[in-house]
Amino acid sequence: MSATCGLDFERRLSTPSSAARRVIGEALRELGFTITVDQLTRVEAKRGGMVGYSLMMKKQMPVKAVFELSPDESGCVISAHLTDAIKTIGKTWGVNRQYQEIFDEVQRRIDTGLAGLDQAAGAAFDAPRFWSRSGDIAVLEHTNALTTKAVGGAVGAADRALQGQKGTTPSAWKGVDSVRFISEAGTAVLPLAETQSDLGIAVMIASHPGSLPPDSARDVEAFAAIVERQLTAAGGKATQVEVSEAQRPVFEILRLQSRIRSTLPLRQMSICRSCRNEKITNPEYQAIAKRNERIGDIVAGVGATIGKGGISPTFVLGQVFKLKKLDPAFVCSRCQGMEADERIVTFCPECGELQRDVVLKSCAKCEFDFATKQGADPVWSESETAPEPQPEAAPEPDAPATWQAPELVPIGRPAMGATGGKRCDACRGEYPNLWRVVITTDSGFQERFLCGTTPACQMPSLVAAVKA
User: Fold this and answer.
1) 3 vs 129 pLDDT, higher one
2) Residue 218: which of 246, 195, 188 has the closest Cα?
């Protein structure tokens, strides 16, 4: 579903994109967001839900944040898109003021962190652009109706919360079933899941290079950024990536490390920023324990409130809000600090020694060779026996491409209907003339050709609307 309102801004820094990504991640977590996609060129996060929206609780209203990072020779460019995440409630009038205040808070916190990396750039940041598809109508007109809908679906919302989050695959990558890497050494065809695993290793290296030389860490980050951009541009189809001779060692490192990690236990180490005390947790155990605790809260509470009048809606809402994590995510057992640096660690399968380094080579204690554990499975298959790339299907004439800025969207032509008229992209009716507008979407900016005869066919344009 398209967003109702949003805030867009762009920031250019003279610092590496990895530093900007770290600052953005810290700011989002501090603001209570859950990061759903964490990659070198894209960070996605969400906060709140429909129950919070129904009660107009600012900290729990549904918000989606997308940050696109583009490294260049002088530093990096960050494109930020903040939108509401309101779902299946029909028209959403009267939320502009509330969401503008929420977006402003997030934007100020992000800008504060980025300005700390580049003070000169921070002093000249452009003002953000707020946009909305709906008018400014008093919230109280619909508060009661929305609350009723939220209460009716509260138990369902609680159940969905217990099922865990959706996958962390970016929406632009959905439909990509395989990625074909081509080099002079041969071809490697990987499912999207394995490609994402390799990119996850790249993110870990960019965050904590460890013993890897700085030049090698930069090569890993640069190659992973190329792969991410290729996946985004694939349009949901199988794609291929050309791997140069200079990039081939990077790809092979990522492949090997991904295979090694898949056979070892995964643990999360939190290092207190105040006293540097370390705490190791098992994410899988934490998820199971959290789910069991939530089930106990809901089952016990709902059972105690069933009577002749049924389940109390107020109580059900209270139980759903108990699912929100009120305690801090980290508390240091030594100094009770609540801020920590996090990293992924594992253990040597031979002697159990803690392995802090991202790139696993050999155990410092028993000299166990991690690469040996993987055997001699080749990374590349022979070029002549490699499967042929799948032919790309012709794009639909009414499926517009996405762009990273509204002014960059080229002027196209509306699709023609069966009777010779110009077809509206919203109602699919045919008309002598349409209005060409540019709107924002989850993946970028697109043009639309609209008749303007109904509210559904009237979308605010980010550039001057023109007749087509």
Assistant:
1) 129
2) 246
15 in helix, strand or coil? coil
- Report d(CA 143, CA 295) in Å as an integer: 29
pTM passes above 0.85: no
Say if residue 246's pLDDT is above 70.
Answer: yes
**Could you give the C-alpha distances from 331 to 29, 191, 328, 340, 402, in angstroms and in order?**
15, 39, 7, 9, 43
184: how many CB neighbours lie within 10 A of its CB? Answer: 10
Q: Is 367 left (phi over 0), alpha (psi -120 to 50) or beta?
A: left
Residues whose CB falls within 8 Å of the CB of residue 123, separated by 6 or more in sequence, listed in order: 115
- In one-letter notation, the amino acid at residue 258 is S
Beta strands in 243-399 (DSSP E): 267-272, 278-281, 340-347, 354-355
Gap between the Cα atoms of 402 and 185, Å rounded: 34
- Distance CA(139)–CA(102), nearest Å, equals 16
Hey, what are 425's tokens? Answer: 């992209």
Q: Is 389 exposed, middle or buried (0-12, 13-18, 19+ CB in 10 A)?
A: middle
CA 358 distance to own-chain centroid: 23
Q: CA 138, 140, 145, 151: dihedral to nearest 10 degrees?
A: 120
Helix (H) or strand (E) holding 216: helix 214-233
The pLDDT tens digits for 197-240 are 888 888 888 777 777 787 888 888 888 888 888 888 887 778 88
Q: Residue 323 corresponds to which tokens in the numbers above?
A: 């699912």
What's the CA gap between 78 and 57, in Å, rounded? Answer: 29
Per the DSSP assignment, residues forming a β-bridge with 430 are 423
Q: How far apart are CA 181 and CA 187, in angstroms?
A: 6
| Residue 322 three-state SS | helix
